DNA sequence: ATAGGGTTAG
């Protein structure tokens, strides 16, 4: 015997006791079964005293690799090591417990190997090594003169299926035919499985269809294939057909078809399968119950899922994962994390899937602390090389606004997948880092990574944010070239983007062209009309929506109420607020209350707005008082403005903007001492007004202008031009609004006004584009009153159309008027 | 010694 075969050191307890205890733990049925198994094999050339040897029976009962090691000395002592049966059994056991290395240590030194030994070794390779290794061992068998048998092919085919390696699988398929196994049910089933696992489900079905006879496993294979390839309806259809053809589903069928049912979220079908499970007596099988937990939670019945989960006597980690996922899917991430904690407390070791779900829940809650805890756990469980988990980690950090950490993880991530890129692009886009999002998107292109619909849906909103029509058209072109123009999600994003880039009519054209629309599609279009001050169009589209099949949701009402608000349609807005609850059973959220205060306040019904706030059933938040203060600024109401502002100072001590608004209200009323007080309060608290910034797109560049800034290369030219432009519009009737600035000389006042970012941007636009071109400006704050007035005159004297998108809405300036009707 | 199908996921 080779010294390499020396078994691991013996444990302190005598060998036989350990093994016997294990054997005793097994039921007597198992022992009998093993004996029967061994006797059945007596047709081969192994003498009875070998296969009836107690060691052979005991060896078969080993439950882990350690027990196998303990056994080897016993085999050696009984001079059984050279018996084929024991050699093969050892290889088989090492293979069963996943140690290819130890299987080889037995296999390699054996001088005269029987065929069975090769077969078992091939199985070890197919199950525990790379496909290449398995294939080269198969070649070696050929060289060593071992004729292939049917099992060899099925092992290899299964491995090809598991690796989705269709080309290698096809090689085996050819050899199968050559060796005369073309109609073997097992082999054919492996082929069906191979195609299904290689995402060629239609090919798989063709094979399935051609089979002369089909057993239960064939049905299960094709049903699982459809289910795993996202063709849930086909899977369910075949589930019915198999029963019509007289096959009774077994637990594997159930576990294959339930995910399909979960996929389409059909509670009705889920319940009927549950009924079948009970009738067939599968109701205590862990995997069946786990699949039921999944179905119920995916159909929105977390309560029912939890009842099943709680009733389970045994749970696998998958059961926990399904339940945790059930909570996150149903928007109860708190419960999800609680269950995750419970799982850890019970000592169940989480898997990659568990951690992905827990990270998802953290992202959902913005819970950075728990997220970082899981990040550490991930190191402990050595899951940092699992790309899927790392993707979830990136998403979690992005959602928790730690884009810096996310970017670092992304940079260092080995084997990035499309999902990794998508997570990062989305992360940038959702954190307002538009340029980074676009740069990463371009980098993907350079690295030849083809975007999918998720990438598009992440990057399009970034462009909407940028609001540059040229870029909007570019991505639209890309959408068409990459054939995403039939994807509802992508198209909805485009509708929203065009509206946000000032091109509402283009948005509507796309909207009309779509064959399928989601609620979000309608919402995007209604909101688009709203922000462009086209309240009537918004209301009309909303009525049209109410006639159709797509039900409005809470966001729809938010869009339509704010559309009414932008257009002064107070009565309509109030009506919608009422029917939201009465006709649609939707509870208004804080945003709806804010929109209502905005609706009333903007229209000058300040007392009504204030009463509305007092009568709110929930504690009003920042947005509500913010709307109130804004309305007070428009309608010059010092009294209510003060009340709203003081509430805001309490609720949001960091927000400098409210101080500025209040100061403006005081300035309008010439209450200069109060203005000074607010200013000094701001200074004391270190609060600053967000600097105004306007963007213009010119040819291939986006130019940004800050108020009073002289950093732009054309700065000098711009200021000179502005001076003459101001003279021109003054001649047309423009009067500078000096009311907001009081403590400087009149000419300085004008200078300050004239250096506002939007005026600089407009001047730059006029200077650098040919007559007649529409100018698009994007501003980070709201347009100031003086700029608004000046822009109207500029549109008149230059004959240009100027579209300004501010924080809240669009202003289309044309021939001396604005689409907002001075109502913003 | 020896075959094929199955639950959770971004």
UniProtKB/TrEMBL annotation:
It comes from Actinidia chinensis var. chinensis. It comes from the Eukaryota. One of its GO terms (molecular function) is zinc ion binding. Residues 733-824 form the DYW domain. This is Pentatricopeptide repeat-containing protein. Belongs to the PPR family. PCMP-H subfamily. InterPro entries: DYW_dom, E_motif, PPR_At4g14850-like_plant, PPR_rpt, TPR-like_helical_dom_sf. GO terms for biological process: mRNA modification. The lineage of its organism: Eukaryota, Viridiplantae, Streptophyta, Embryophyta, Tracheophyta. One of its GO terms (cellular component) is chloroplast.
């Amino acid at each position: 015997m080779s010294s390499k075969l020396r078994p691991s050191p013996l444990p302190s307890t005598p060998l036989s006791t350990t093994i016997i205890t294990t054997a005793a733990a097994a039921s007597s049925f198992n022992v009998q079964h093993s004996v029967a198994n061994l006797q059945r094999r007596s047709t081969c050339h192994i003498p009875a005293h070998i296969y009836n040897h107690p060691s052979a029976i005991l060896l078969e009962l080993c439950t882990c690799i350690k027990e196998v090691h303990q056994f080897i000395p016993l085999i050696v002592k009984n001079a059984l090591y050279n018996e084929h049966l024991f050699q093969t059994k050892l290889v088989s056991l090492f293979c069963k417990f996943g140690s290819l290395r130890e299987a080889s240590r037995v296999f390699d030194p054996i001088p005269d190997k029987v065929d069975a030994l090769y077969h078992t070794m091939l199985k070890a390779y197919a199950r525990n090594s790379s496909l290449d290794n398995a294939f080269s061992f198969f070649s070696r068998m050929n060289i060593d003169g071992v004729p292939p048998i049917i099992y060899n092919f099925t092992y290899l085919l299964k491995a090809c299926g598991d690796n989705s390696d269709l080309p290698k699988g096809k090689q085996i398929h050819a050899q199968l035919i050559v060796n005369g196994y073309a109609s073997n049910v097992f082999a054919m089933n492996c082929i069906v499985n191979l195609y299904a696992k290689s995402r060629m489900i239609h090919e798989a079905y063709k094979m399935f269809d051609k089979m002369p006879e089909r057993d239960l496993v064939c049905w299960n294979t094709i049903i699982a294939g459809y289910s795993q390839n996202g063709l849930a309806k086909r899977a369910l259809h075949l589930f019915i057909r198999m029963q019509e053809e007289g096959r009774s589903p077994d637990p594997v069928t159930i576990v294959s078809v339930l995910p399909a049912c979960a996929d389409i979220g059909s509670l009705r079908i889920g319940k009927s399968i549950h009924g079948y499970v009970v009738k067939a007596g599968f109701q205590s099988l862990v995997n069946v119950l786990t699949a039921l937990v999944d179905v119920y939670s995916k159909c929105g019945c977390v309560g029912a899922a939890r009842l099943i989960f709680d009733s389970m006597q045994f749970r696998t980690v998958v059961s926990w994962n399904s339940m945790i996922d059930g909570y996150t899917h149903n928007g109860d991430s708190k419960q999800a994390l609680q269950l995750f904690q419970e799982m850890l407390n019970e000592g169940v070791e989480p898997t990659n899937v568990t951690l992905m779900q827990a990270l998802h829940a953290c992202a959902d809650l913005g819970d950075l602390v728990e997220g970082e805890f899981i990040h550490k756990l991930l190191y402990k469980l050595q899951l940092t090389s699992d790309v899927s988990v790392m993707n979830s980690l990136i998403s979690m950090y992005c959602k928790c606004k730690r884009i810096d950490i996310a970017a670092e993880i992304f940079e260092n991530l080995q084997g990035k997948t499309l999902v990794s890129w998508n997570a990062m692009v989305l992360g940038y886009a959702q954190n307002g880092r538009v340029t980074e999002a676009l740069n990463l998107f371009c980098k993907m292109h350079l690295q030849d990574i083809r975007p999918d619909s998720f990438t598009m849906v992440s990057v399009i909103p970034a462009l909407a944010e940028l609001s540059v029509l040229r870029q909007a058209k570019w991505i639209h072109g890309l959408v068409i070239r990459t054939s995403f123009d039939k994807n509802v999600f992508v198209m909805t994003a485009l509708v929203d983007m065009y509206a946000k880039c000032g091109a509402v009519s283009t948005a509507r054209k796309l909207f009309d062209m779509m064959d399928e629309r989601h609620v979000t599609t309608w919402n995007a279009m209604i909101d688009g009309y709203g922000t462009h001050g086209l309240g009537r169009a918004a209301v009309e589209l909303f009525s049209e929506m109410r006639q159709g099949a797509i039900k409005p949701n809470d966001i729809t009402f938010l869009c339509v109420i704010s559309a009414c608000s932008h257009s002064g349609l107070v009565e309509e807005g109030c009506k919608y607020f009422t029917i939201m609850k009465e006709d649609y059973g939707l509870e208004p959220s804080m945003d709806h209350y804010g929109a209502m205060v905005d609706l009333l306040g903007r229209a000058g019904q300040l007392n009504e707005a204030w009463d509305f706030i007092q009568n709110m059933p929930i504690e009003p938040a920042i947005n509500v008082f913010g709307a109130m203060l804004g309305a007070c600024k428009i309608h010059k109401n010092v009294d209510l403005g003060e009340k709203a502002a003081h509430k805001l100072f309490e609720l949001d001590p960091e927000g400098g903007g409210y101080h500025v608004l209040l100061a403006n209200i005081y300035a309008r009323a010439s209450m200069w001492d109060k203005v000074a007080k607010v200013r000094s309060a701001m200074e004391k608290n270190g609060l600053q007004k967000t600097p105004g910034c306007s963007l213009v797109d010119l040819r291939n560049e986006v130019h940004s202008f800050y108020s009073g800034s002289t950093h732009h290369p054309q700065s000098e030219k711009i200021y000179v031009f502005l001076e003459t432009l101001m003279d021109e519009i003054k001649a047309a009737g423009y009067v500078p609004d000096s009311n907001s600035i009081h403590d400087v000389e009149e000419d300085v006042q004008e200078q300050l006004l004239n250096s506002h970012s939007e005026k600089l941007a407009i001047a730059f636009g006029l200077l650098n584009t040919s007559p007649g071109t529409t100018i698009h400006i994007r501003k980070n704050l709201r347009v100031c009153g003086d700029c608004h007035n000046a822009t109207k005159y500029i549109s008149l004297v230059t004959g240009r159309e100027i579209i300004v998108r501010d924080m809240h809405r669009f202003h289309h300036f044309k021939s001396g008027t604005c689409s907002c009707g001075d109502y913003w």
